[in-house]
Design goal:
Layout lengths: L7 E9 L16 H10 L4 E6 L13 E6 L10 E4 L5 E5 L1 H19 L3 E9 L9 E4 L32 E10 L12 H17 L5 E7 L4 H5 L3 E8 L6 E7 H4 L2 E4 L6 E7 L5 E8 L7 H16 L5 E6 L7 H5 L6 E2 H4 L10 E2 L14 E2 L2 E6 L4 E8 L17 E11 L6 H9 L4 E3 L12 H4 L8 E3 L3 H28 L7
C-alpha cells in the first residue's frame, strides 16, 4: 500500500445538533460533562499518524489543503478505519492501520459521550507538507477551544489522483521496474494436488506473483487470450497482443496506465513481438518490446534474424530500447545477439551474473510438465538494454518457489524475471481520463486482432475499436468467451502434450545434481 509524507494538524470541532458551533472551554473537573471531556481531550495531543491508501484514493491532497478525518466503523477490511477527505468530501486516503487502532477508539468514545449532551464533533486538519511518496506523517491535535479550521474556506478540490502513484509518489523517479513471465497459458502444473481447484485460482496466483515486483512494464508470453492480460492487470493498459510463430499463445505488453498515456504501438509486422514507443514529457524517451521466439535448438538462425529485425525496428525510433521475454536462446547464441545493431546489454550479466538467478527453466526441480519430462536447465528468458540512458541496477527471479509445500509444483514451467533499470529522472503527470476508461472496459469488452499503427496512441484503443478500418474488432456479445472457456482445458492439455514431446525430443536430459 502506497503512502506519501505530509503533516496534518487536526482540530476538534464541536457543534450542537442545531448546527450552532459550541466551544468546549476548560472548567473545574467537577463542573460539567463537557468540561471533563475538554480536560480529557487536552491530554490526548501529539498523535503522530500516517495517511496511506493513495493508490485507491479518488483525489490527491495538496500542501496547505484542509482535510477532515472521518470514522468508518463499517469498513470491511478494518473496523478501526479512519478516512481522510477533502473539502468536497472526496477521499484522499486513510489513516494507517496502526494509527487508526490508536485513534479510532478515542474518536468513538468522544463521539458517544458528546452525543449524550447533544454535541457533534469532527476531527479536522491542515496538510502542511508534500511528502516523499512512501509515508505521510500526520500530526493530530485536539483543541479544547474548538476548531479554527473552516473547510469551506479551504483550497480548491484536489486534483484527481492516479490509480497507482509512481514509486516516488509523484516526486522525481529515476528507475523503471520491468517484469517478464511466460505463464504457460495460465494452466496449473501437472503436479498440483487438485488441478480442477487450481485452475480456478491460477490467474490470481500469476497476478499476485507479477504485482509483487511492482512493475512499470509487464511482458507476457503464452497468454491464453488477447484479453487475458488487460482483464487480469486492471491498473495496466495492454499495448496490444500478437501470436507467437511456434505456439498458439499470445504475446502481450502492458504498461502502467501513467506510462501508457505517453505510448504508441510500434508495428512489428509479422514478427513475434509487441512493441511500444514511450515519450514522457520532459523525461526519457525509449522503446520497449515483449517477445517470444521459436524454441528448438535448430532455430538459432531464425531467432537471430528475428532479433535483428525487432532490434533494428526499435533502434530506428529511439536510441534507448528494452527487449524482454522468452527468447528460447542457448548460451552459445549470447554473443551474436549482444552484438546486434550497435550492441545490447544483457541485464542478468550486467547485474552481476548471479548463478542463483541464472536459470529461468529448471525441470530438474520444477516438474510442471510431469515426472516424465526431461530434466534440464536453461536461461531461456532475457532482458536486453540498448542506449546511454538505460543501465541495469538489479535482476531477480520470481515465481521460482514451489506452491503449497509441494516441491515439484510451480506456477509455470518458466520462472519470471524482473529488473530495475536506471533512467534519467522524470515525473509522470496524471494519467488521461481515457486511459482509465480503457482498463475499466477490459472486463466487458473483448478486443480481437488488436493491432495499432505506430502513430496511434494506446489511449485511443477503445474508441478506435468501434471503427473496423482501424483493424480492431470489438466483440460485445460475450459468446466467444463462453466457447473459449468451454474448450480451454482440452486445448491446454493438447498444448501440454505437444510441449512435452518437444522437450523430450529437442533437449538432452541433464544429470540430476
Amino acid at each position: 500500500m502506497l503512502a506519501t509524507p505530509l503533516i496534518v494538524v487536526a482540530a476538534l470541532a464541536l457543534s450542537t445538533s442545531g448546527g450552532r458551533r459550541r466551544s468546549c472551554r476548560v472548567q473545574p473537573s467537577n463542573s460539567t460533562p463537557t468540561a471533563q471531556l475538554s480536560e480529557e481531550m487536552d491530554r490526548r495531543t501529539d498523535l503522530l499518524l500516517t495517511i496511506v491508501g493513495l493508490k485507491w484514493a479518488r483525489a490527491t491532497a495538496q500542501s496547505g489543503e484542509k482535510v477532515k478525518l472521518v470514522r468508518e466503523p463499517g469498513n470491511a477490511h478494518d473496523a478501526n478505519a479512519i478516512k481522510v477527505v477533502n473539502s468536497k468530501g472526496v477521499s484522499v486516503g486513510h489513516i494507517s492501520k496502526e494509527g487508526a487502532a490508536s485513534l479510532a477508539r478515542k474518536m468513538d468514545d468522544t463521539s458517544a459521550k458528546l452525543a449524550r449532551i447533544g454535541i457533534d464533533f469532527a476531527v479536522e486538519g491542515t496538510i502542511t507538507g508534500c511528502g516523499d511518496g512512501h509515508t505521510q506523517p500526520v500530526h493530530v491535535v485536539f483543541k479544547q477551544d474548538g476548531s479554527n479550521v473552516a473547510l469551506q474556506d479551504s483550497k480548491p478540490a484536489a486534483i484527481p489522483a492516479p490509480k497507482r502513484m509512481a514509486k516516488s509518489g509523484g516526486a522525481c523517479k529515476t528507475t523503471l521496474c520491468l517484469a517478464s513471465f511466460n505463464i504457460s497459458f495460465a494452466e496449473p502444473s501437472q503436479q498440483a494436488s487438485d488441478r480442477v481447484s487450481r485452475r480456478v485460482t491460477q490467474t490470481g496466483l500469476i497476478r499476485d506473483a507479477v504485482l509483487r515486483c511492482n512493475p512499470d512494464v509487464i511482458a507476457l508470453q503464452e497468454s491464453p487470450s488477447d484479453a487475458w492480460g488487460s482483464g487480469t492487470f486492471r491498473n495496466y493498459v495492454s499495448i496490444g497482443t500478437t501470436l507467437a510463430t511456434h505456439v498458439d499463445g499470445h504475446i502481450d505488453l502492458l504498461l502502467r496506465r501513467e506510462l501508457a498515456q505517453f505510448s504508441k504501438r510500434i508495428d512489428l509486422s509479422r514478427l513475434p513481438g509487441v512493441a511500444a514507443s514511450i515519450s514522457i514529457p520532459n523525461g526519457p524517451k525509449f522503446a520497449v518490446c515483449s517477445v517470444h521466439l521459436p524454441h528448438t535448438a535448430e532455430g538459432a538462425s531464425m531467432r537471430e534474424m528475428m532479433c535483428r529485425s525487432i532490434m533494428t525496428c526499435l533502434a530506428g525510433r529511439h536510441e534507448n530500447s528494452i527487449v524482454m521475454g522468452d527468447f528460447n536462446m542457448r548460451q552459445k547464441e549470447d554473443k551474436k545477439i549482444e552484438d546486434l545493431i550497435g550492441g545490447w546489454t544483457d541485464v542478468w550479466k550486467s547485474a552481476g551474473e548471479s548463478k542463483a538467478k541464472k536459470f529461468t527453466w529448471d525441470s530438474r526441480t520444477n516438474r510442471y510438465h510431469g515426472s516424465e519430462a526431461f530434466e534440464f536447465c536453461a536461461r531461456f528468458d532475457r532482458i536486453y538494454l540498448r542506449g546511454s540512458d538505460l543501465s541495469a541496477r538489479s535482476f531477480d527471479l520470481f515465481a521460482n518457489k514451489p506452491l503449497d509445500g509441494n516441491g515439484a509444483d510451480y506456477i509455470s514451467d518458466h520462472y519470471g524475471i524482473t529488473a530495475e533499470v536506471s533512467v534519467p529522472s522524470f515525473v509522470i503527470p496524471q494519467p488521461d481520463a481515457d486511459i482509465s476508461g480503457v482498463t475499466q472496459c477490459s472486463a466487458s469488452i473483448k478486443v480481437r486482432g488488436d493491432r495499432l499503427g505506430e502513430g496511434t496512441p494506446a489511449s485511443t484503443r477503445a474508441v478506435n475499436g468501434a471503427r473496423p478500418g482501424h483493424g480492431i474488432y470489438v466483440d460485445l456479445t460475450g459468446s466467444d468467451d463462453e466457447d473459449e472457456l468451454a474448450h480451454k482445458p482440452a486445448a491446454a492439455e493438447e498444448m501440454r502434450r505437444k510441449r512435452l514431446a518437444r522437450f523430450g525430443g529437442d533437449s538432452p536430459p541433464s544429470k540430476r545434481k
